[in-house]
Amino acid sequence: MKKFLIRLIVFFAIVLSICSTLDYIIEKGLRKTNVSPYLVWNKIYDSKINADMIFSGSSKTYVELCPQIFDSILKLNSYNLALDGWTFNMQYCRFKIYLQHNNNLKYIIQNVDFGIFEERNDLFNFPQFLPYLHDTLLKNTTDLYIGKLTFSEMYVPLFKYNNQFNAMNLGIKSFFSKNKNIEDKNKGYNPNDKTWDSSFHKFVIEHPNGLNREINPLDIKNFEDFLITCKQKNIKVILEFPPQYYESITMVNNRQEILDKISEFAIKYNCIYLNYLNDSLCTNKKYFYNSQHLNKLGSEIFSTHLATDIKNIIK
Predict the structure, then answer these.
(1) Residue (of 283, 191, 205, 287) closest to 246 by Cα position
(2) Average pLDDT of the residues of the chain
(3) Which burial class, exposed, middle or buried, applies to 223 when counting CB atoms under 10 A from its CB (0-12, 13-18, 19+)?
(4) Contact predicate 271/315, CB 8 Å
(5) Which residues in the chain land under pLDDT 50?
(6) Cβ atoms of residues 291 and 203 within 8 Å
(7) Which of 195, 240, 263, 310 is the most exposed place for a label (fewest CB within 10 A)?
């Protein structure tokens, strides 16, 4: 019986050692990869951005604001920090992490739209967070959502990568690849070259009377905290309401309430507030791939327009 217990202990020690080694390899590999979405997180944590201006927002910012255009017009170094699919709570978390690891920030362009105070429940694209959950700030934020890591997933080696075969494969390959500088030609920007799709038509059929967008108290609080933080750190905030297809605007029944709340914050904290809901882009489908997002053509026109407006204001 004693020999059996010894063998059992040795067996589990070997398994634990293998799992710990694999966990280390995968995490280190993901922390050096230049594959999205890990690329931007890696540059944040490795203090490789240090931009004069950053763009914060969800998919609208992710596909619509081109840093190269802003750099050319404003003669500064900008970077797109947008989090595809995420609402303000996680955007604010990423911003705070960015400030902990990067310097020189003078301006932030924060996307605002009818969903700015809305919150999602699930951990969208959760694998992107896995290599960085040793960061208490990020861990505490992900813990607010359905799908957060259990105790065993967090502390048993390799268990958090359960069913995450793509992340595991990428991490192992990256770990054993030659070290190289992280390539980031688009500086976080990811334009979409698609043409207009049928999603808005389906939305109108499903919501013939429009809908109310949520105003979540947590996001209201976080948004004000964000503005206070920027004011304390002397970071100029530019609130930017991007173009969206004009027929979709009237589908938001409580749109004026949301617009008033944004204006209230802008006035209170002396922010630049640029609203493009009446921009000429809004009336032409050729600039959009759905009612909410500009395509590559539209995003380049809008980036030029926005950068020029900002230049005229802050000169």
Answers:
(1) 283
(2) 93
(3) buried
(4) no
(5) none
(6) yes
(7) 195
Q: Residue 173 and residue 58: Cα distance in Å, rounded?
A: 29
Cα separation values, 85 from 8, 37, 89, 123, 244, Å: 46, 12, 12, 10, 17
Domain residues of the chain, as ranges? 2-314
Question: How is residue 176 written in tokens?
Answer: 């054993």
What tokens appear for 177 in the block? 């690849």
- Which pLDDT value is given to residue 180? 58
Assign residue 76 a region (left: φ > 0; alpha: ψ between -120 and 50; beta: otherwise): beta
C-alpha torsion angle, residues 132, 164, 122, 48 (rounded to 10)? 30
What's the distance, CA 266 to chain centroid?
22
Q: What is the torsion angle, in degrees rounded to the nearest 10, for the CA atoms of residue 9, residue 11, residue 12 and residue 16?
A: 130
Which positions ≥6 away from 151 have C-beta within 8 Å? Answer: none
